[in-house]
Predict the 3D structure of the following.
Amino acid sequence: MIVEDAELRQAISVAESYRQRVESLSRQVQVLRVSLDEVTMASEALKAFKDAKEGDEIMVPIGANSFVTVKVTSNKNVVVDIGSDISVEKDSESAIEYMGANIAEISEALKKTMEALGESQNALNNLTAAIQQEYSARQQKPQ
């Protein structure tokens, strides 16, 4: 099936749009995975903190896969970032619940983004195959 040059140029343009979307979604997936890992690590640290007794030593993540050892005091409050550079003080149980909600939200966003990435990648693959098939047909066509 040989298509007109204008249709082929349009298909190439659409393929480039899909390629850019795939790249953008791939970056979003990476950011969401990092965010999910970070929130999960914070949630685990909060659980260890909540379960610790005064005077116990626990490892607290400080980022970049690094931890510090701290002694637990009687103060079980936690300062939690709630977005837009705003932090609030919560008791450890409320902070754990908040982190759980964040984990659920990020997980859902990651799932949807990965689905969109898969759909875009499939569309790109199909369109690229069709374009390559058209080029092959044109090369075999006698001039």
Remarks:
- Residues 92-140 form the longest helix (49 residues).
- The mean pLDDT is 91.
